[in-house]
Specification:
It is found in: Cell membrane. It contains 12 helices and 4 strands; from the N terminus they run ααβαβββααααααααα. The chain is α+β, with helices and mostly antiparallel strands. A 4-stranded mixed sheet has the order 1-2-4-3, sandwiched between helices. Strand 3 and strand 4 form a beta hairpin. Helix 1 runs antiparallel to helix 8 and helix 7 crosses helix 8.
């Protein structure tokens, strides 16, 4: 789970957090499936089949689904020479394989990276981002995104978020009555039937908190690694300030559409102080800027 053979600075804190998160998520997953099997009796093969199928789909196709959902369109060097040029320079600097390069047609200024590994990855910038940033600022953002691929935390977040998706789905099915009827046919025990949505909701909350804690740290780690690779933390800080300031000018409808994918984005698509900000997948802007100022002082010294 480390940065591997790239020149991105390794982050032991990120690695340890990924290991701990995966262990706790795995433990929670085993308990969750075990409880469902116990409650559903002879229907357990269906539980295992659905859980296994969803896990495989989440791991192998989540990056493609996310990219498609966010409107990412792969572009050639001829179609986007400046974007490809920036990615080429950063990949040469980091000594890592070049990912696919894409653009999303939206005025929301942002960027994201997806992929299970370095050779199966994609980095995308929105048209709103490309219009607003100077070349050095753009490279800072792209360096941040490529560090997610180099550190492989994108793959870990994909796996870690799967349990929350599964628990949320089971909760909805149980509330609709599907699992309740299945369990009721097995033992006619109403208290046990009621446990299904309760356990699912509890698992969802725990997995949500675990992924949020990891997500906030990995964003700080990507800022740090990206700034150290380019040697220009001030450019990344400038991009952060510019993007966060412009979020308040984006129509609320567009922000709501993008908000579902905040865990992938460079900056969260939210505006103002709200519950969404408190539960954000990213650390506060002030904390990110403070870290970049300290890195700038360190490099200057």
């Amino acid at each position: 789970m480390a940065a591997g053979r790239t020149r991105y600075a390794p982050d032991r804190g990120l690695t340890s957090r990924m290991v701990v998160t995966m262990f706790l998520i795995g433990l929670l997953y085993v308990v969750f499936v075990g409880v469902l099997i116990a409650l559903l009796g002879k229907a357990w093969p269906l539980v295992v089949l659905i859980a296994g199928g969803l896990f495989v789909a989440q791991f192998w196709f989540s990056d493609r689904i996310a990219a498609f959902s966010m409107g990412a369109r792969e572009v050639t060097p001829e179609q986007a020479p400046e974007l490809h040029g920036a990615v080429d320079r950063l990949c040469a600097l980091a000594d890592m394989p070049k990912p696919k390069v894409a653009i999303a047609e939206t005025d929301v200024p942002n960027a994201f990276a997806t992929g299970r590994n370095q050779r199966n990855s994609l980095v995308c910038a929105t048209t709103g981002l490309l219009r607003r940033l100077e070349p050095e600022e753009l490279e800072g953002v792209l360096s941040h995104e490529l560090s997610h691929v180099a550190h492989r935390d994108v793959a870990v977040m994909t796996i870690a978020s799967f349990l929350g998706v599964l628990a949320g789905m089971v909760t909805r099915i149980a509330l609709w009555g599907g699992l309740g009827r299945a369990a009721g046919r097995q033992n006619n025990n109403t208290p046990l039937v009621l446990l299904i949505p309760l356990v699912s909701a509890l698992v969802y909350v725990v997995s949500f908190l675990l992924t949020r804690l990891l997500s906030r740290y990995r964003e700080l780690s990507a800022d740090r690694a990206g700034a150290l690779l380019t040697g220009r933390p001030s450019a990344l800080a400038s991009a952060l300030t510019k993007i966060s300031g412009d979020m308040s000018r984006i129509p609320t409808k567009d922000l709501r559409q993008a908000e579902a994918f905040n865990a992938f984005y460079f900056a969260p698509a939210i505006s103002g102080q709200s519950m969404a900000a408190l539960l954000s997948s990213h650390p506060p802007l002030e904390k990110r800027l403070d870290q970049l100022r300290r890195i700038s002082t360190q490099l200057g010294g």
